[in-house]
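Quick one:
INPUT:
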């Protein structure tokens, strides 16, 4: 088996392995320090724990009210991503198949909005949320995620729909399938790679987001996992021995989710680039 390697290939693979270890190093520091007492974290954060202090996790579980924070994060993520994926896929399909001037202008406006920094619209966005009475509600946060995530999702779905042969839809129409039936029975299943890509990318974004929940959700019982974890960092104190286990608890579900579905990201983007 070693004969298949050339000198250049072997060097490249060693370099890639070292780069992979470099990117994994933050996870090492996160885990080993999550089971250390505070003093040991401060004195030597890179060393292996002398004694594994698993009590840190039970303290983090209780102080963050983790079940409630987890439920809030899960509800917001699932609802936001599900609605975003469905609406964006339907909008992109309509824009491609009905290539009117209105749809072209709308698509260009969506693409143009992707280059606007969030900081420039943050205050007007909060004002709109307050005027609508959606401040401090999950509904307001979910609607904000829909507005901010739709341009990229429509852009990716738009490119993918172009790779779907129109003849398949015409054949389904001849067989008596309605327009809605064509989308849900024919088009949407064929869009599965891109659909999973949108779901994975937006789940990572919504689950790990801190800024938007901190701006819209103020009540303690509505805190998401990032907000609950940030409570351990004050102006004068930083409870690393509790914050790090809370971070591990918070990222574990999304890491597992990503590992199971990450292959769809490459498949979806590659398939969407077949036709421009």
């Amino acid at each position: 088996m070693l004969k298949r390697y050339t000198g250049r290939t072997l060097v490249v693979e060693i370099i890639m392995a070292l780069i992979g270890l470099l990117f994994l190093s933050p996870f090492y520091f996160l885990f080993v320090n999550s089971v250390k007492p505070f003093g040991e974290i401060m004195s030597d954060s890179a060393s292996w724990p002398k004694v594994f202090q698993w009590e840190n996790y039970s303290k983090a579980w209780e102080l963050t009210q983790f079940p409630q924070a987890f439920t809030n994060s899960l509800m917001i993520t699932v609802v936001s991503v599900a609605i975003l994926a469905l609406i964006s896929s339907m909008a992109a399909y309509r824009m491609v198949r009905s290539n009117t001037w209105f749809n072209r202008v709308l698509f260009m406006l969506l693409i143009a909005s992707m280059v606007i920094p969030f900081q420039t619209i943050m205050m007007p966005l909060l004002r709109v949320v307050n005027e609508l009475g959606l401040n401090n509600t999950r509904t307001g946060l979910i609607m904000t995620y829909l507005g901010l995530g739709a341009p990229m999702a429509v852009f990716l779905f738009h490119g993918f729909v172009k790779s779907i042969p129109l003849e398949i839809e015409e054949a389904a129409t001849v067989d008596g399938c309605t327009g809605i039936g064509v989308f849900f029975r024919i088009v949407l299943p064929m869009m599965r790679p891109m659909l999973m890509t949108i779901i994975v990318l937006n789940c990572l974004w919504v689950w790990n987001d801190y800024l938007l929940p901190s701006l819209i959700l103020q009540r303690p019982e509505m805190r998401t996992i990032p907000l609950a974890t940030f409570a351990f960092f004050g102006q004068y104190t930083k409870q690393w021995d509790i914050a790090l286990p809370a971070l591990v608890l918070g990222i574990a579900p999304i890491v597992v989710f990503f590992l199971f579905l990450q292959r769809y990201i490459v498949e979806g983007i590659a398939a969407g680039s077949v036709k421009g």
